[in-house]
Structures are given as C-alpha cells and as structure tokens.
Write a structure and sequence with these properties.
The protein has 743 residues and is of the alpha/beta class. The chain has four domains: 83 residues, Ubiquitin-like (UB roll) (Roll); 176 residues, 2-Layer Sandwich (Alpha-Beta Plaits); 242 residues, 3-Layer(aba) Sandwich (Rossmann fold); 145 residues, Dimethylsulfoxide Reductase, domain 2. It is 30% helix and 18% strand. The chain is built from 26 helices and 30 strands. Strands 15-14-27-26-25-16-17 form a seven-stranded mixed sheet, sandwiched between helices. A hairpin with a 4-residue loop joins strand 28 and strand 29. It is globular, with a radius of gyration of 28 Å. Bound molecules: iron/sulfur cluster (SF4) (3 copies) and FE2/S2 (inorganic) cluster. FE2/S2 (inorganic) cluster (FES) binds next to loops.
Length: 743
C-alpha cells in the first residue's frame, strides 16, 4: 500500500498541523503530512509501503470538527483540515495505549537486543507511561527458535503485524501468521514450529521491539557499543547499501540503518547475514609460497619479490604475451582500472579477462549503435516501471533486490510483468500477467520471435501486449547474449515511449569489471583496444604504449595455460579452477601461478604464490551495480596480514620497474571520472550514499564466442567461494534445497 491513496500531483491540499500551514498532494495520508511538517508522530503498526493495519492507535490526533481522536495512519488529508498532535487529550491517549501495551511486556530492556533502538522504549520515555495500574500476573512464554537466524520472544511482541505484512507483501513468502486470540495471540511460522522461508530477516529489521531477533546478533552487544559504516553488499550484482555494525574490529551485524542507497531497508539473506565470511577463521592472513612440495607462509616482501622476479623471467624469455591476468567480479572499480592498466602497460599484454556473467559489452554496443546511451535502466526505474519484460534469469535467487523491486512495481504501481523463461520461476508464476515458458537455450529464438514476429501464439500475444505499453523496462539474464542482445535492443527501442534495459550479472562488481576494461579487447568504457584513437586517449595519460592486438579471452588464457603457451598467470579474486571445472593438470604447464584471494580456494591451492587479500569490508572504493549505478564502499575494519588488490598491484608495478602514480583509491577514482567516458559522476553524491548512473558509450567488438558469458546460477544462499565460508548462509535448512525452490 502506498503512503497515499489515489495521490494526484496535479491537486494539492492545504491543512494546518499544530498551527503550521502544510500543503500536500491530494490523497496523502495524514500521518505522512504530519511527518512532512517536521512533527513526530508515534506509529507502531503503520509502515510506509505496507498495507494499513490501524491496530495500535499510537498515531491518534485531534481533528477539528471530528468528535473523537482519529488515527493519522488511516485518515486521508482533506482541504482545510485543522489538526492537533500535541494537546493533552492526544498525549493522554498515547500514554494510555503505552500502558496497555506494557501490561504483559517484560521489563527486560537491559538485556533485550532492541534496548537503545526500541520504538516502544522510546515512546515510553517520551510519554511517561512507566507506571502501570495492572497488577495481574504476566503471561510467560519461552522464546522460540523459528530458524537458526530468526528467534521469537512472544512476551515482547506488541502485535503490530508489521512482520506478517512485510513477509507477505514485501517478500511474497507469507511465512508468518497469527495464532490464538486476544492476550494469547502470537506470531507463528509456517512449518510447524519452524520457518521455511527466504531467511531475509526483513521481519527482524522491521519489528519495532525486540520480539524478533537475529541468530547472528542476539545477546552479543548493545547498539551504543557499535560503530556504523555504510558500504555496499559484496554478494550479488544489485548493489544494496548496507550499514555494517562493528565492535572491536569485528563486524557484528548488517542492516541499512540510514535507508539511503537503492534498497532503503531491504537486504536479502546474503546481505543481512552472509557478510560473516569476513570474520572467518579460514581467511588467509600471511602470503604463501610453494617450497618443499607444499605452500609455506612467508613475508609480503618475499612473496611480492618472488612474483615480480618470476614474471620478469617469463617476459624476458617468452615475451609479454606469455603472461595473462584474470580479474575479479567483486573487487572495486579502482582496482579493476589499475589491474587493466597494469596488464596492458606494465606487463605489456592484453591477455586479460574475468568470468563474464552478463553480456554488458553487447548491451553497450547495441545502445551506442542506436544513439540511445540514455536507456540504461536504474533500479529505481524498475520500481517505477509500468511494464517490465524479464527474459531469463531467476531474480528471486540471483537478484533478490531486483525481484523485490519488481514485486513492489506490480503491487504498488500496478505494473505489468511479462516473463519469458525456461523454468517456472516464482516471479513468472506469482507476479507475471503473462508467463511464456520456452525450451532451455531457446531464449534467443524468443527474442527473434518478439523482434521479427512468428514463434508461438503465446509469444505473439506477449509481443502485442508489449506494443501497447509505454516506457517498458527490459531485463535479461545471461541466456540472452551476443547478437540476441543487439536484436532485443533494436526491437525494444521500437516500443512506445522510453524503453530502458538492464543486463543481469552475478556479483557485486561484475558490471564494473567490464566497464573498467578487464577484457581482452576493450579499454575502460568499452573502447576497442585495436582503435588507435582509443589507445591514444589512455596512452596520453599513462605515458605508456598499449598493445594494439586484442588479447586472449579467459577460455583461451586457460587453454594456453594447459598447452604451455601461457607461462605465467596472475589471478585476482577469481577461482577459475572451480568456475571452469578444470582438473589439476589443466594449469600444470604454467611456469608460475600467483593468486590473490581471501581463502585457499581450489585455484589458490595450485598457486606458487598466494597473496592474502582484503575483503570488501576492509577497503574503500566504488562498485557499479548491474544497472550501471556507482556507489561508494567504505573501509570498515582492518584485517592484519592482508592487503588490497590495489596495494598489491602498486607494489608489483614498483618491483617491475614501472611504478604507477596512485597512492589511494581516491586518486584512481578521480582519473576514472576524468578519463572514462560515461563515468563522469559527481563525487558529492557518492559521499552522501547516492547511486550514480553511468552511461558507457564505447563501441566494443561483437561477442567472440557465446560460452564466454555464463552465470554461476547462485541460489539465495550461495555466492561463489565466499558463501562456503559463511556460517549464516550454510546453517539454515533452506540452503540445502535446490535453486528453483519457492518458499
Ligand atoms: S526472514 Fe524474511 S522470508 Fe523469513 S519470515 Fe522473516 S520476512 Fe519472511
Ligand atoms: S513480532 Fe514484532 S513485528 Fe511482529 S507483530 Fe510482534 S512486535 Fe510486531
Ligand atoms: S540483493 Fe544482492 S546486493 Fe542486495 S543484499 Fe542481497 S545479495 Fe546483497
Ligand atoms: S500507527 Fe496508526 S494505528 Fe498504528
């Protein structure tokens, strides 16, 4: 439910609140008008974006010419209304409601997780209802463990129903309900005594009191003992803003405290609980070098010197193209930009790639060719869209925020959702007004049918319906790549209005890795490396030559490592052995393998040198979400013994005799803003937590081969190698269920 009913920007209404004149659009709820006037109004059951409940009566106000107090959350503003929120009658009513809520509430604030940030505690302080006239014995209930991540304490529950509504309306999971009546009412989970759900923790976050608590945070600390750091979730490509709560250099909790960013308070299970890999005891904290048949801990100086030495030897003996670099989907834009410069100018090779999980290049190519670089859709565009076409992917698992925004678009704005998929995905079954199932691998044919006509009757009907819509947002997964992306864009741009596009890549900086040119054939901004003018753009800044011939793609790099043509391989935050299902022998002919990683992954186990890298929580920079929106990450804690990829690259460049002129991520970001077309973002916006749109405008070459783009098909509970080191993501029963399971 929106925070207004039938709001029309064209009509405004004037009212007076506590003597202040206020103007609001017609249809605005009185509670929102009061907030707009800068006046606090207590509300337990009202929550913006959720259906109205009218259960707690805390928001009562006096309205002139109305005989009784009215609930501001269910009253729509009318012209000339005169409202008082601060008279004695209102105050006494609120105080009485608090006294009533406290009749069975335990006085355990000193040990309750919510103490210090509890809405009930705050209101009792405000209205002074600390004493009670009720002398009856309190009803006691033992705390219940709904799951390893969600606990319920019935005596603290004030029955506001926020948790039930957010799980139903926000999450479309409907895992919580109410049992019994009156004072015996309690919240119950959906699988007997347990929850079977997405474990997103939205119910915990939204609970105004300490009735629902988190299995990872409960009884660990008090909110005032924590420091708070706003950064970006490091799991999927959606780019949720998250506030990490830290005590003694250890992350204790994640939520989005300031509600800035593109997700407001939303976080999925990975964002809310799956950050705990940063505290894992399995983190690498000392460099390893291979000697005596094993990997032995050593100093940073020795590990870096050895790496530089071995790379120099390979270049001197076999040339620069005997070296290759594989980059990461999670490291920052600044690290990716410097990695790309390091490979091309310090090592002198374009043998540089990463695991591509979406075909961003083809999207950029198609939009640039059409002169439509203003048609990259933002996450907000998805939320506000009147029609959405989703081709491939399963956002419920792979892009939880996007799935949430699609659900909100359908529920709050009446958006039409059209889904084409080879599986019966939840969004297709429950939210779509039209769901067309295609054979696996036939998504490109579906695109052709949309574009050229033909195909099944269902596809023709869908095509006709889309042609009647305006301003559609077209979202596609890795099933659509290469020429199919270009055809989809050409056709999409013929639809009425301003069609916009999103390509869905798997991880926190999949988009940034491509945008920053961690690709064998394109420089930052998708300019072809074979284009002399494009090279000159960067050569003039870097003062170094860039090789003109496109390098090997990731499959060719790995094949070269197997055949012996590639002699030295440097891998940053990537696990190709697992991703490409390589056996041990596949890298056996390399002379030298260096891996910078958080954990001893299967690839790191084969390395001659392993460098312990910092996690997202331990470094600053920016990342670009799958919609192309840039957000700032913040250094939240320190991890002894680790170094960021940026520090590693700068040290290696120095040791290789070609130091790079950066001393911090800020230096690199300034260069990106100045030099990469489409990335001229405004720094102040970044600092206040905004997500800033980018518009790449290069003309990259066509996709070389389709098998270069493929998703890892992560579930809600997996996220490449980091999720294996998250207790939270592995402790819940649902994590053992298959990807397609619907809760
Ligand atoms: S954790 Fe999320 S999905 Fe599970 S009950 Fe709470 S709101 Fe619903
Ligand atoms: S558990 Fe929390 S959110 Fe749910 S009804 Fe009780 S007080 Fe409200
Ligand atoms: S939706 Fe993606 S970015 Fe957001 S919290 Fe979940 S994993 Fe993180
Ligand atoms: S907030 Fe208005 S009745 Fe609960």
């Amino acid at each position: 439910m929106p925070d207004s009913i039938g709001k029309s920007a064209a009509t405004t209404l004037a009212l007076t609140i506590d003597g202040k004149p206020v103007t609001v659009p017609a249809g605005t709820l009185l509670i929102e008008a009061v907030k707009q006037a800068g006046i606090e109004v207590p509300s337990f059951c009202y929550y913006p974006g959720l259906a109205l409940q009218g259960a707690c009566r805390m928001c009562v106000v006096a309205i002139e010419k109305m005989p009784k107090l009215q609930t501001a959350c269910t009253t729509v503003v009318s012209n000339g209304m005169v409202v008082r929120t601060d008279n004695e009658e209102v105050k006494n009513s609120r105080k009485a409601m608090l006294e009533f809520l406290l009749t069975n509430h335990p006085l355990d604030c000193p040990v309750c997780d919510k103490g210090g940030e509890c809405e009930l505690q705050d209101m009792v302080f405000r209205y002074g209802a600390a004493e009670t006239r009720f002398m009856e014995r309190k009803l006691h209930h033992e705390e219940k463990k709904f799951s390893s991540l969600v606990y319920y304490d019935r005596p603290r529950c004030i029955l506001c129903y926020r948790c039930i509504r957010v799980c139903d309306e926000g999450m479309d999971v409907n895992a919580l309900g109410i049992a019994f009546r009156g004072a015996h009412s309690e919240i119950i989970p959906n699988r007997g005594d347990e929850l079977a759900c997405e474990e997103c923790g939205m119910c915990i976050d939204i609970c105004p009191v300490g009735a629902l608590t988190s299995g990872t945070y409960r009884y660990k600390t008090r909110p005032w003992e924590l420091t708070y750091s706003g950064t970006i979730c490091n799991h999927c490509g959606d780019g949720c803003k998250t506030t990490l709560s830290v005590r003694n250099n250890v992350v204790i909790r994640a939520n989005n405290r300031d509600h800035s960013g593109i997700n407001s308070e939303f976080l999925c299970v990975k964002g809310r609980f799956g950050w705990d890999f940063v505290n894992s005891e399995k983190r690498l904290t000392a460099p390893l070098v291979r000697s005596n048949g094993g990997q032995q801990a050593t100093s940073w100086e020795e590990a870096l010197s050895l790496t530089a030495e071995r790379v120099k030897q390979v270049i001197a003996t076999h040339g620069s193209d005997a070296v290759a670099v594989i980059g990461s989907n999670r490291t920052t834009n600044e690290e990716n930009y410097v990695l790309e410069r390091f490979a091309r100018t310090v090592l002198g090779t374009n043998n540089l790639d990463h695991h591509r999980t979406a075909d961003y290049s083809s999207l950029v190519r198609a939009l640039t060719a059409a002169g439509a670089t203003d048609r990259y859709a933002s996450m907000q565009d998805v939320f506000e869209a009147s029609s959405i076409l989703l081709l491939g992917n399963d956002p419920t698992h792979q892009h939880p925020l996007l799935a949430y925004q699609i659900r909100q678009a359908v529920r709050q704005h009446g958006a039409s959702l059209y889904v084409i998929n080879s599986s019966e995905i939840k969004l297709g079954l429950r939210q779509a007004s039209c769901f067309v199932k295609v054979q696996p691998g036939r998504e490109a044919e579906a695109v052709h049918a949309l574009s050229a006509g033909g195909g099944s009757g269902e596809l023709s009907a869908l095509r006709e319906r889309l042609q009647q819509q305006s301003d559609a947002v077209i979202v596609f997964g890795d099933e659509v790549r290469g020429a199919a992306v270009e055809e989809l864009v050409r056709w999409g741009l013929t639809l009425p209005g301003r069609t916009r596009f999103v390509a869905l890549g798997d991880y926190a900086n999949s988009r940034g890795a491509a945008d920053m040119g961690v690709l064998p054939h394109t420089l930052p901004g998708y300019f072809p490396v074979s284009d002399a003018a494009a090279r000159e753009r960067y050569e003039s800044v870097w003062g170094a030559k860039i090789p003109s011939r496109p390098g090997r793609n990731i499959r060719s790099i790995l094949a070269g490592a197997g055949s012996g043509e590639i002699k030295a391989l440097l891998v940053f935050g990537s696990n190709p052995v697992k991703t490409f299902k390589l056996d041990k022998a596949a890298l056996g002919r390399l002379n030298f393998l260096m891996v910078a990683e958080l954990f001893l992954t299967p690839t790191a186990k084969l390395a001659d040198v392993v460098l312990p890298a910092t996690s997202f929580a331990e470094k600053a920079g920016t990342v670009t979400n799958t919609c192309g929106q840039v957000q700032a990450t913040k250094k939240t804690m320190r991890k002894a013994g680790t170094r960021s990829d940026l520090e590693i690259l700068l040290a290696l460049a120095r040791l290789l005799g070609q130091p790079l002129p950066y001393s911090s991520p800020d230096d690199v970001l300034r260069e990106i803003i100045a030099r990469v077309p489409g990335y001229a973002i405004a720094l102040p916006g970044l600092l206040v937590g905004r997500a800033l749109a980018t518009r790449p405008e290069g003309m990259p070459p066509e996709l070389e081969r389709p098998d270069l783009v493929f998703s890892s098909r992560d579930s809600l509970f997996t996220s490449g190698s980091v999720s294996q080191n998250s207790w939270a993501l592995n402790c819940v029963e649902e994590s053992k269920e298959s990807v397609g399971t619907i809760f």
